[in-house]
Each structure stands twice: as C-alpha cells, then as structure tokens.
Amino acid sequence: MNRAQSAVEPRRVSVHPATKIGAVSLTVSSLQRQIPFYEKVLGFTVAWREDRKAGLGTGGKDLLRLVEVPGARRVPRTTGLYHFAVLLPDRRELARAVARLFDVGYPNHPTDHIMTKTTYLTDPEGQEIELYTESPEDGTWEMNANGYFARRADGSLSDGREPLDVDALFSSLHPGDPLDRPLPPQARIGHVHLYVRDVPEALEFYTDVIGFDNMGYTTAFMMGMVSAGGYHHHIGLNSWMGKGAPPAPPGSLGMRHFEVVLPSGQELDRVVQRVKDAGVAMEQTEAGPLIRDPSQNTFILATGRSA
Fold first, then answer.
1. CA separation for the pair 82, 287 (Å, rounded)
2. Are 142 and 149 in contact (CB under 8 A)?
3. Per-residue pLDDT of the chain (307 residues; tens, 9 = 90+)
4. Does the residue 4 lie in any domain?
5. Considering the domain boundaries, does residue 7 fall inside one?
6. What is the domain extent for residue 88?
7. Residue 231 forms part of a structural domain
8. How many domains, in total, are found in the chain?
9. 271: which of 95, 245, 264, 277 is 20 to 30 A away, CA to CA?
10. Is residue 3 part of a domain?
11. Where residue 176 sits, what CATH number does that domain have?
C-alpha cells in the first residue's frame, strides 16, 4: 500500500517523537554468574536485588532487569531478542568500555557502522549485546530492497560493517582515565533488535498500531527498522531465525519484555487507544500495559521512568 494517504483516508498518526526504549527484562539461569559480568565487565551498577530478581543500570535508572529461572535454556530458531544496545554519550565512554573489555580479555567485535561506532559481545549465557555511540558527523546509512549500506561524509560508500579503528577510538581517552569507572549516568538503552516470524507483518504492527515510523526494509537482509522522531532505529526487526519461527517456550533464556517509554500519560493513552482500536490484546500490569507483537515479543508501555 502506498504510504501516502488519500483525501478520504486519515493520515496515520506517529508515536510521539520523544518516545524511547526503556529497561530490558531478561530471564537468566544464574544471577550469581550474570551480575558480576554486567557489573565488573560492562560497568553496570546493581540498583536493587530481591530474591531471584535484580535491577542493573546507571544514574538512578534501570537499564536491565534480570529474573533468575534456574535451569533455563536458550531455545534456538525462535523469535525473541537478538540484541539490546546500550547507547553511550560519546566516543570517550565507548573507548573506556572497549578498553575495559580488552583489559579483562573479554571477546568483543568493534565495528564501524559509519554513523555509529560500536562493539558487539555476548554475556555468559549467550545474550548478544551492543555498546555504541553516535557518530553522524562521519556519515549516514541507507536501506532499500537490495540491502543496507552506509554513505560516508565525503560521499563514498561503505557496507557499514567495517572493522573499527580502535587506535583512533582510544585516542579519545584522557591520560590516566580509569577503565573500571561505572557506566556514565547518560547511558541508556538506545535500541532493541528483535527476531520476528515475518518482517512485513512486524513492520505493519509497529507502524500502524504502535505508531513508529518505518525507517527502511530490505528483502535482501530480511530486516527492517522503526523509530520515533527520525532516529535511525529504536527497534530492529529480522527474520533470521526463519520465516514463521515460533516463540520460545515460557521460562526460556532471553527477553521477557522491553519498555516503550512515552513522554507523558496523555501520549501513552493515545497509543493504548490505537492498540484497542486495532483489536490487539493488552494485559494490565503494575508497570503499565503489556502487549505482544504478532511474533509474541512482549513490551510494556511506560511513561518517563527509564528513558
């Protein structure tokens, strides 16, 4: 369908441009193993711990919530969380994070997406993580049916997956910068990337029902992106686990839910009304309305607490 609306069809309303991704909740099999990793290797601060639950973050906000289910296992070829991405405020903080990983010998993969600088790693239970900072001064990215690529500021093209110049990144550090400093208070969840059973179906749900803007779709990579306010992406979508992939069984390792954080109660009410109008089921929780996308990936609509 042409996204340009006809004179008799109401224009789709976008979600508020200040909408962000909030805390990500994961099922883990061992808090004893996971908490030291996130605290000592990545620099998260333990904000609270109760029985088999813990909240980790920075600056007084949770970025990650862990729920322990002993014996939980990761089920392959299912929908769910591909990775969550921690957005750092500048290259210096990314340099500190990468240098800390090198210092403790933790495997990671520094990558230059041109418009972002990043590194990828997995936690001790196999959850993929991205740490990144914005670098729009270096260029931008483009996506079409044939694929994804980046365009540098000088106009030259890149595949957007180049090895990161780590020496140049480390030049952002100041002499004597401590590597064991906690994540800065400005750090937040920049985006989540989800495995879905069908990308066009997921794009339709996140744009037409929730109100995110479609930032691109490539059939070549089986991938799409949506965002609020013109950001490159708040939610990535791919069908790399196979078209029609089922959700993981309850209690499996991986994502329980993530938060979509609206700037006000009024904006939350507007999204809730669109969800009701679309006939999508919601579950009321203490944290806010809980919604499942067509692939059974779960998120909570929240206001302001975690952005």
1. 23
2. yes
3. 333 333 344 447 899 999 999 999 999 999 999 999 999 999 999 999 999 999 999 988 999 999 999 999 999 999 999 999 999 999 999 999 999 999 999 999 999 999 999 999 999 999 999 999 999 999 999 998 888 899 999 999 999 999 999 999 999 999 999 999 999 999 999 999 999 999 999 999 999 999 999 999 999 999 999 999 999 999 999 999 999 999 999 999 999 999 999 999 999 999 999 999 999 999 999 999 999 999 999 999 999 744 3
4. no
5. no
6. 20-303
7. yes
8. 1
9. 245
10. no
11. 3.10.180.10
Residue type (1 letter), 12: R
